[in-house]
Amino acid sequence: TLGTQTDYRDGEAQTDPYSPEYVVPSGSVPELLTLATLTWGRGLPAGLVEVEMIERAREKRAWEATLPAMDNASHIAKRKKMMEDMERKEWAFREQEIEKLQEVRLEVLKKLLQRREENQNELDAKRLDDHWQNHQKAKEEKIKKIQHDCALMLRKLIAKRKNVMGKLERRDIIREYTDFASQTYAPLSRIGYFPDNHSERYVVKNFYLNTFAGLCELEASLPDSVTQVDIKAPKPKCTTTKTGFVKRSARLEVELAQVHQ
């Protein structure tokens, strides 16, 4: 019913599986000792590759038990032939393993090349998109400039079309003053007129507002009701009726005052 809390994680406390000490009887070669090279994380727990390796080791031990003794020349030749055959099989098996490793490496290389090609394609597509966007912006700006120039030229042509024959026209003062968009009311700066120049002449200059003497004269001309405020005290409200009773509104005001207090 009690719990404990440690300062270490379970992963930090894990160790390799325990391998107890062993004693090998004389004259015996346990098969388990042939797997002493396999350790935890390197072959253990055993997979398909380790099982195939164990099976090949068993087949080789069974083959070694079938080798003839080296007591005469015929047995030696037979033993040599069997060893050469086994050596060819081992080389063939080693070649197959090398081919498998090469195939695996080739697949990995293909995936890396494919990934690099995809990244390069994405980068090229992004560059093309940016290049296209820049061209679109330049195109839009050029179109705007062309439209602006076209409108400007059209206005010039319309102005020239009004006087095709180039005849001299007298100034129509009445038409200029009736048209509020004419040069009289809205002169253009390109003909040498700048409306911001000498703007102080439009400021209102008044003797009564800009000088102290004018302010005193203006104040003296005003009536007394403007400078001297006449406050009249309000009349008290009548809270009783003609017959001497207190009005309902007065009673409500008294009650409200009590509630407020």
From TrEMBL:
Keywords: Cell projection, Cytoplasm, Cytoskeleton. Residues 4-156 form the CFAP91 domain. Its main location: cytoplasm. Pfam families: CFAP91. It is found in: Cytoplasm, Cytoskeleton, Cilium axoneme. GO terms for cellular component: axoneme. InterPro entries: CFAP91 (IPR026720), CFAP91_dom (IPR032840). Belongs to the CFAP91 family. PANTHER family: CILIA- AND FLAGELLA-ASSOCIATED PROTEIN 91. This is Cilia- and flagella-associated protein 91. It comes from Cepphus grylle.
